[in-house]
């Protein structure tokens, strides 16, 4: 890819146009190499762009040396780490109904929240993440960074409309301020778990129409709500705990 | 307080010198008023600084009108909301051993993590939060904002040395990558739960010396670690779940 095009990958529309995203920093590149080893990265078509100090970095990927000015243009941060990988966007999953529980996030906005959620889902394993239209792009550099590499390990589906869920999942649960406790046996029996975004819940009419069951994480009411990522973390924990 | 001193409260040393901190935005001010109602706010010695558009804001607090230039100096954000409260720092708890479980955070650095943790602890209730020396100041505007007002509801103790824990707590648990599962009955039996920071665990020698028990949140190993706030969230959930 031409260098001028590489720089454009900080924007979603160019990531989609070129089918690639950027991954910055040694830690994330090492996670990428682990994903390659585990077979969760689609192909070997990764290119590393490195500063002088990473010229001898051991890697199965092709390396291209950049000068400091070029590196700072490619970097998303004020202090470039000196190593950036160009990674192909994963292809959409080919199976309609893969194994594991689905976490559906409705219009998630905060990159840090999405990154933290992916990190938790990767930690527990057995989850995939579905994003509604209007969600933050998971290949946004801030999400990739907050995920600490988990984005290479969690199956993702983008632009999944809420209305498409009933055709794919027999039992749909929704996290709400009112509902059955997540401790109930019925919770883990759901196939897909729907979460509203940072500011508002999922439209109730749509949920009613699809016969979704409402669940809640019981609290004592001192504050209005849990952080979105906290709610997903707790549900993911509860699901894997209940599954034994 | 003089206006020139107010502006200094963005820095920790002045917050400590003047014994006050700033709380910005309508949502946080409303939470502050709820804390007053619930009796968890020490006194009525809160002053509100408002722009013209909040001149008629209904509040039990004394109001001082600021012009836009003054407000932007007082604000921590690029787009000032037009309402900032001056709040006295809470006094240190007077009882040595109050009720509830203690969450001890060792050198927590990220303001967003601490804010999210406080939000979860406030959600569940029955927790207090102890911070080691070298932790981020919880009255830092970023922490206050991320806590969404939870900081007014969770008892806090600052600068608590790790070595002071054994004198105060009979059973100390520590979250680690290796240890007994948090699902075990023994977990909720602990009085104090120790968490390392974002980058490293608590020094093992110190933990061994105090006879702390190690606990772990079981994962599948695709990634190195959980986010700190996620780990605390899950433990707080598990504790309240196990307590029924």
UniProtKB/TrEMBL annotation, chains A, B:
Question: Cross-referenced InterPro entries, in alphabetical order?
Answer: Alpha/beta_knot_MTases, MRM3-like_sub_bind, Ribosomal_eL30-like_sf, rRNA_Methyltransferase, SpoU_MeTrfase, SpoU_subst-bd, tRNA_m1G_MTases_N
User: What GO cellular component term, any one, is given?
Assistant: cytoplasm
Q: Which GO terms describe its biological process?
A: methylation; RNA processing
Q: What is the superkingdom listed in this entry's lineage?
A: Bacteria
Q: Which UniProt keywords apply?
A: Methyltransferase, Transferase
Domain RNA 2-O ribose methyltransferase substrate binding, by residue range, is 22-93
Transmembrane ranges, per UniProt, are none
Molecular function per GO: RNA binding; RNA methyltransferase activity
Family (UniProt)? Belongs to the class IV-like SAM-binding methyltransferase superfamily. RNA methyltransferase TrmH family.
Name this polypeptide is given: TrmH family RNA methyltransferase
The record lists the organism as Simiduia aestuariiviva
